[in-house]
Amino acid sequence: MTLRAGGRTREAAAGSRRRAALDQPERQRQSPGQFAQAESDLILRTSQAYFDLLTARDSVTVARAQLRAVEQQRVLAKRRYDVGEATITDVYESQSRHDLGRSQLVQALNDQEAKQAELERLVGPLPEPVAGLKADVTLPGPEPKDVNAWMGHARENNPQVRTQLAAVEVAEKEVSRNRAAHLPTLDFTAGYGNNYTSGSMTSPADIENRVKSGTIGLQLTIPIYQGGAVNSRVTEAIANRYKSRAELEAARRQAATQARQAYGGVTSGLSQVEALTSAVTSSLDSVNANKIGYRIGTRVNIDVLNAEQQLFAAQRDLAKARYDTILQGMRLKAAAGTLTEADVQGVNALLTNNAQQETPAVPAMPAAAGMKQPRTSIQ
């Protein structure tokens, strides 16, 4: 009776090992670019949500200030009407603007709640108070001040470009690997066996026997013809290489376009902030002049209301322009592949919990001769 106690054969499949050794490290090279892209996207989404909340909060502040200003003008119009110095039309116009202001305030409050919920979805419960932009902050411009330099940097360092560049390298190696299937392969083989034979019950003369054996050698494989499978895989790998190269060029163009647009957004945003700052100052002067004119009879009530509305619109637009400029600066760095947490800390330095979110006060107007001056400043 013969029993096989155990046996093993090991063959080193060199081709399979080479394939596995190629795929894993090369594909892992795409991971840093993908991680950088995910980090950049998260920073931008969170920053956008944060400044959306600040914009909504400013809209609430402006709506409340405008409502108070209209109420003050309505009281003044009613007082002048009672003494015969104004028409009922002035009272109706003020009341109409007052009712419209209440509606706008409700809408602004609802929008603020929605924007806060969106930010909390990303970062969790918000601290109180939410830090606002410093009133006297000077927004930084892009460095270097050369759009072509930013575009060139984006074409090489954008996270999506880096990911696609790694994909091209993988595709190149895949072509080489599939072409190598035409070449002879030399494999190392090794085997081990353990055979055991016991004595026979019918033949006592038989003796038990134990045999151990081992083999070692080299195996040469020369491909002759595999039905066109190798050629087909090579053709597919070459097509994938062309596809990866095309996607790389598309990623570079997109990154350069994003950098150009963001650079333009920063420069135009800075100009807009400067213009709107002057517009706020001019609007304050306009409100001042129209209120004086209304008291001495050279302006009507609607002129004052329109001037106040223009002032509050300029204040709201100025705040939004500042937020948008900061965001465009972050998008510019994201396109160039340099946006990191350090940039978030840089933006945080522009914020303060002590920022006054109320709009600038409308200055009190000097009273006309013989007329008592009502309270006109916005708190």
Largest sheet: 3 strands, antiparallel
Overall pLDDT score: 81
CATH class placement: Mainly Alpha
Order of adjacent strands in the largest pleated sheet: 1-3-4
- Tell me which CATH architecture applies here: Up-down Bundle
Helical stretch tally = 8
Listing every helix as H and every strand as E from the N terminus to the C terminus, the arrangement reads EHHHEHHEEHHHE
CATH level 3 topology: Outer membrane efflux proteins (OEP)
Uncertain spans: 1-22, 356-379
Overall structural class, as computed from helix and strand content, comes to mainly alpha
InterPro entries: OMP_efflux, T1SS_OMP_TolC, TolC-like
Pfam family, one: OEP
Subcellular location: Cell outer membrane
Protein name: Type I secretion protein TolC
